[in-house]
Design brief:
The protein is mainly alpha-helical and about 300 residues long. Helix content is about 85%, strand content about 0%.
Length: about 300
């Protein structure tokens, strides 16, 4: 585990530097928002497009992979939902807590870190996990909360879902990249260099932005947040591992990438959704804070287990 820890430490050190910059107010909340926007719309989008454009859909898409990851997620989603309802919270709060339990920081942390640690061969599997998270679970929480509030499903909800996906630069970048790859054309040299240079800013920029955004979070509802962090860091990768290794014949390397991606801490976009709907944002914020801090050890251990030997 020590060699893997030494490889993952620089990534978490960048998060730590961002946290200190935000905590000391050297990096303001406005600066953090601007950096996050740059990474989200430019650097990370360039990285995702470049990865996807150099893959074929046949290399990336695999039904066993999809079923294994989805089934593992749904088991943990159901557990988190059941525990939340047992505590007699609202259905909306239960949906947000379940989201915390299964949605990891694949975009800002997983893509740059796992591809660098496990090699560019991991890119396809990471993109698959990211696409499932964004398409399936971002849609699911919207359906649940909107359905509960309106008392029914409507075409308007589907329109909101569709527009949300079309406006997400990560989804757009992956789809456009795969579409380019499907043509069989190689990305022109200057364009590839441009995407590589812009995409290279995604890793330090995203990690710094994660840390800076954590600086503004305060810890409340520790017990519940601790339970959600446990679901995300322990139960989620364990359930995905069981599904990928025992129930579905997922190719071993792809399974290892999937499990490593499942071990990532709670994603920041869960907080964005919680704040948007006004459902337990502080609880989500604390879950992100606790899971990110603990992931220094847990993510390292999982990567060492599935990849480092």
């Amino acid at each position: 585990m020590l060699p893997i820890l030494l490889k993952t430490l620089p990534f978490f050190a960048l998060i730590g530097v961002g946290y200190l910059a935000g905590r000391t107010r050297f990096f303001s909340a406005e600066a953090t928002a601007a950096l996050t926007k740059f990474v989200f719309y430019f650097a990370l989008s360039a990285m995702l497009f470049r990865f996807a454009a150099n893959l074929s859909l046949g290399e990336v898409f695999d039904w066993n992979f999809v079923f294994a990851y989805l089934s593992g997620c749904l088991v943990v989603y159901a557990i988190a939902t059941a525990v939340a309802l047992w505590r007699r919270v609202s259905v909306e709060e239960a949906a947000v807590e379940a989201q915390c339990a299964v949605i990891g920081n694949v975009g800002f942390l997983g893509v740059p870190m796992l591809v660098l640690l496990m090699g560019e061969a991991a890119a396809g599997s990471v993109l698959m996990v990211l696409a499932i998270d964004l398409i399936v679970f971002s849609s699911l929480i919207t359906l649940v909360i909107t359905g509960v509030r309106e008392g029914r499903m409507s075409l308007g909800i589907l329109r909101v879902l569709g527009l949300g996906l079309l406006k997400n630069p990560m989804i757009v970048s992956i789809v456009l990249g795969l579409a380019w790859g499907a043509t069989g054309w190689t990305v022109p040299g200057p364009v590839n260099e441009f995407l590589g240079t812009l995409g290279a800013a995604a890793t330090p920029g995203a990690l710094f932005a994660i840390g800076a955004s954590l600086a503004g979070r305060s810890a409340e509802r520790i017990q519940v947040a601790g339970w959600l962090a446990f679901c995300k860091l322990v139960l989620h990768p364990a359930a995905v591992a069981v599904a990928a290794l025992l129930f579905f014949p997922v190719e071993p390397f792809a399974a290892s990438v999937m499990i490593a991606a499942a071990s990532l801490p709670v994603a920041g976009n869960v907080y964005i959704l919680a704040a948007h709907y006004g459902v337990a944002p502080q609880r989500v914020s604390t879950s992100i804070l606790l899971s990110t801090a603990a992931s220094v050890l847990t993510v390292t251990w999982v990567i060492a287990l599935v990849h480092g030997g």
